[in-house]
Automatic annotation (TrEMBL):
GO terms, molecular function: adenylosuccinate synthase activity; GTP binding; magnesium ion binding
Pathway membership: Purine metabolism; AMP biosynthesis via de novo pathway; AMP from IMP: step 1/2
One Gene Ontology CC term in the entry: cytoplasm
Name the record gives this protein: Adenylosuccinate synthetase
Matching SUPFAM superfamilies: P-loop containing nucleoside triphosphate hydrolases
Organism: Novosphingobium malaysiense
Lineage per the UniProt record: Bacteria, Pseudomonadati, Pseudomonadota, Alphaproteobacteria, Sphingomonadales
Length: 429
């Protein structure tokens, strides 16, 4: 029985929520392994709508849900998300929820710094979610983070606070901000500590235990490969590794545990925030994609940029992340387009490229080369088998999988869980 690792294969917002929800309902444990509360998805279960940005999706169905060490955790946000879900009747306790005790914390100073930097960057801003994700990861690799396990030893926090404050106070002075108020930070940490600590443990042990007992584990990725800090459109990326390999390091289970890598791929392309986007459409077609696809960010409410499917970028993401099969989502958004286009290569300084170059200026200057296909007049919305799809939509799917050199495992045809064409069950592998 395979475990499954779900990752976004574009710039996030590929429609992971529905697929992860479906897989979570069949898993014994769900683990988040990177990112923080910059992620966002909406789960619809019966009449209830749940909005998650930090908690693993399994929480809603009572499946063991774990926040792994690769995540950066805002303890105040955690409390409010847990309380909100409890208010909706979701049971959350130390039996079904655990947080890695070596997880770094996002502190108010991180959120402030995120905002100050973005404001100062003007047109050059990254367009972050403003949640302090980048500064918190910086402190982790800078070896001055305060971690979940430190909450149990606040009386011994002085040396760490010294390191943290020495770094941040200098930065804050540059922005004309007062020094960190150490006393009030300590007080706030002491207040939130019992809430976090009731769930804290070395989750790598718990995961290894359930793995040995034969549990099916779902690794729930956030954002997308093109936002990966190494492989994405640097510097317009998030500050974690979003590729499948992080499932191992960010959870404390080795790479052999990550199993079937399911890449979630939207039938067209979207992006929130700044940065290169070769197939972006600044015209009526882009507008139409955005309207039909309801392309607004779950966390920030920002309008998403929209464009045609980019097979070059998606092929690259699938290769880098070792994707076993893809879930193609939101195909119905393309219903009714007379013609649809797929980017199959780039032109750059008179040369043809079949990959996305690493340098930011090259990334900004590539010109997409398109292949045009006939669209379809019928609808794909709600299709549950190939027979329900217009012939031209099937041709589109086939062309996508050919170009990205990765097979389709699932096709999602509406937000409803049942409106899915299952080609290959990731858990059955
Ligand atoms: P940060 O993760 O808040 O630092 O934001 C860095 C970049 O990642 C920005 O372009 C954000 O819009 C983008 N980003 C972060 N989280 C998500 C997500 O869950 N979906 C889509 N984009 C995201």
């Amino acid at each position: 029985m395979a475990n499954v690792t779900v990752i976004g294969a574009q710039w996030g917002d590929e429609g992971k929520g529905k697929i992860v929800d479906w897989l979570a309902s069949r898993a014994d444990a769900v683990v988040r392994f990177q990112g923080g509360h910059n992620a966002g998805h909406t789960l619809v279960v019966g009449e209830q709508v749940y909005k998650l940005s930090l908690l693993p999706s399994g929480i809603v169905t009572g499946t063991l849900s774990i926040i792994g060490n690769g995540v950066v955790l805002d303890p105040w946000h955690l409390k409010s998300e847990v309380e909100k879900l409890r208010g909706q009747g979701v049971e959350i306790n130390a039996d079904n929820f655990a947080i890695a005790d070596n997880c770094p914390l996002i502190l108010p100073v991180h959120r402030e710094l995120d905002g100050l930097r973005e404001a100062a960057a003007g047109a050059g801003k990254i367009g972050t979610t403003g949640r302090g994700i980048g500064p918190a990861y910086e402190d982790k690799v800078g070896r001055r983070a305060i971690r979940v396990c430190d909450l149990a030893h606040l009386d011994a926090l002085e040396p760490q606070l010294d390191r943290l404050c020495a770094h941040h106070d200098a930065l804050r002075a540059g922005f004309g901000q007062p020094k960190i108020d150490r006393d009030s930070l300590l007080k706030e940490l002491a207040k939130i500590a019992p809430f976090v600590l009731q769930f804290a443990q070395p989750t790598w042990r718990r995961l290894n235990k359930v793995k040995k007992a034969g549990a099916r584990i779902l690794f729930e990725g956030a954002q997308g490969v093109l936002l990966d800090v190494d492989h994405g459109t640097y510097p317009f990326v998030t500050s974690s590794n979003t590729v499948s390999g992080t499932a191992a390091s960010g959870s404390g289970l080795g790479p052999s545990a990550t199993g079937f890598v399911l890449g979630i791929v939207k039938a067209y392309t979207t992006r929130v925030g700044s940065g290169p986007f070769p197939t972006e459409l600044d015209d009526d077609t882009g507008q139409r994609l955005g309207e039909r696809g309801h392309e607004f960010g779950t966390v920030t409410g920002r309008k998403r940029r929209c464009g045609w499917f980019d097979a070059v970028l998606t092929r690259q993401s699938c290769a880098i992340s070792g994707v076993t099969g893809i879930a193609l989502t939101k195909l119905d958004v393309l219903d009714g387009f007379e013609k649809v286009k797929i980017c199959t290569g780039y032109r750059l300084n008179g040369k043809i490229l079949d990959y996305f170059p690493s340098h930011a200026a090259d990334q900004a200057n590539v010109e997409p080369i398109y292949e045009e296909m006939d669209g379809w007049s019928g609808t794909t919305a709600g299709a549950r088998s190939w027979a329900d799809l217009p012939a031209q939509a099937i041709k589109y799917i086939q062309r996508v999988q050919e170009l990205i050199e990765t097979p389709v495992a699932l096709v999602s045809t509406s937000p409803e869980r049942e409106d899915t064409i299952l080609v290959r069950d990731p858990f059955a592998d």
